[in-house]
Amino acid sequence: MKETHDSPDDSPDDSTDDAQDERGVEVVDARGLACPVPVIRLAQHAREATPGTVVEVWATDPAAAADVPAWCRMRGQDYLGARSCTAADGSVWTAYRVRVGGAAAAPGLTP
Amino acid sequence: MANPSPDGPVDGGAPTAEPPPAGAAQGHRAVLDASPGPLHPVARETLAAAVDAGWADPRRLHREGRAARRLLDDARAVLADGLGVRPEEVAFAPDGPTAVRWMAEGLTYAARRRGARVVASAVEHSAVLVPARHAAAAAGEADLAAEVAVDHLGRVDLQAWAGAVARPGTVAALLQHANGEVGTLQPLAAAHEICRAVGVPLAVDAQASLGRVPPPEHYDVLAGDASSWGGPGGVGVLVVPTRTRWLRPGPADPDAGLNGPSGHHPWVPLALAAAEAWQQTAATREADAAEAHLLVDLVREAAAAVPDVEVVGDPRERLPHVVTFSALYGDGEALVRELDRRGFAVASGSACTSSTLEPSHVLAAMGALTHGNLRVTLPLASVSPRRAEDVRAFTAEVGPVVAAVRAELGADHL
């Protein structure tokens, strides 16, 4: 969690799974879901996404901070970082950014 | 999950519509979570005898008190001999985590005029990290608790360690002998040399290792827990060599001659049982560790053969009896419950299995997957005579159990 700023426009209540926001980043909304579901949602989304797409996973589960980067490492995806978000109603979550594609077909990579 | 009652059908109680457990033999429990493990059977006999012979207050001058005092002295002498130190350098604490906490407190208090900064690896026990962070937060100086990163095997980064302990105001360095979650042994000799060069004492947490590998030699204070060598719960052990500047806060202990530097004397029967367990375990340690090492290799191989399962921790420089692995898209709680239903007691470092709902800080610090985690800690063979067959049965279950739990989440084809 490197930076904190307000979430872009959409309020947490009307955002939907797999919404595409205006910056060309595809959002996987996994807030309120416990591990390993946020990573499963990310993997499901990544399978359908065009290679090179940037996917942002929104999660409240503290395990996502370790597990999203670990998934990227194991699946050969690019982990781009995380930021803290706060909605107008005060709810907080973390957005993890991943560029999917590339070496996606190579599971089990070790560091 | 399938069996919400922890003591349900597994023990042969209520009838159930579920299929019979496929894994461990009918009615047998395969205990693969020995942190803490069951009491050593000989220590159990000693404990029962000592309850009769050593119940009295060892400070009393009457015959019963003197008998208790003799037993406590014997226990201390056995532990000192085993740890390669003098009896007056051995002290007790109410349990391992308290011994670890006191170990750090004694160093920082003794050095309070020189500073308050403490350095610890990022994978230390929470009994180290939580008080250190709390003290730093209370003082409003985050730098008073420095956490040194580890590599992907869980080994402390010695270069960063050297930089951290050399910072002015550092009064204590804290490093474990081995990690109890992933088994990785720390480079204690090198870390201690670095500390000595800058005059910072090294406190070593040996809670996970004592009784399983030879005791550490490179430390300025040492802490352990009798349950790691088959002893009873409720016995923490401290080694404070006379050369080390170490002092617990608070008034002087009027019974220092009995208690040693920690100011605590344990219930004598527990101390004697701890010493008995030490003797029993030390006598078979090498053979036990060699067998455990091979059994853990079997678990590592079986886990690594399951698709998208990562075995965590150093494959060679490790404790003989500990292994951890994480299954991508697995649910740690579901894995533990499914194995329990099949007759296996196994731990997990996943967030969903912890009381705080936080994942294991050890796995996170290593960059390992925290979900779908399972942790095997083998009991001593003398405590669990069917250990080898339990492990073999477990290796046959890992693949099917991971597959079943993934399928439940619809994650079996990702």
Description:
The complex is a heterodimer of chains A (111) and B (414). Chain A is α/β, with parallel strands linked by helices and 111 residues long. In chain A, 22% of the residues lie in helices and 28% in strands. Chain A has a five-stranded mixed sheet. In chain A, strand 2, helix 1 and strand 3 form a beta-alpha-beta unit. Chain B has eleven helices and twelve strands. Chain B has a seven-stranded mixed sheet, with helices on both faces. The N terminus of chain B is likely disordered.
Question: Any key phrases for this structure?
Answer:
heterodimer, A: 111 residues, alpha/beta, Translation Initiation Factor IF3, five-stranded mixed sheet, 2 helices, 5 strands, 22% helix, globular, disordered N terminus, B: 414 residues, Aspartate Aminotransferase, domain 1, Aspartate Aminotransferase, domain 2, 2 domains, seven-stranded mixed sheet, three-stranded antiparallel sheet, 11 helices, 38% helix
Q: CATH superfamily membership of chain A, which one?
A: TusA-like domain
CATH topology of the largest domain in chain B: Aspartate Aminotransferase, domain 2
Q: Total number of helical segments of chain B?
A: 11
Q: Name the largest protein-protein interface in this structure.
A: A-B, 23 and 27 residues
Name the helicity range of chain A: 10-25%
Task: Characterize the biggest β-sheet of chain B.
Answer: 7 strands, mixed
Percent helix range of chain B: 25-40%
Rg estimate of chain A, integer Å: 13 Å
Strands of the widest sheet of chain A, in order across it, are 1-4-5-3-2
Shape of chain A: globular
Low-confidence stretches of chain A: 1-18, 103-111
Question: On the 0-100 scale, what is the average pLDDT of chain A?
Answer: 79
CATH class of chain A: Alpha Beta
Shape of chain B: globular
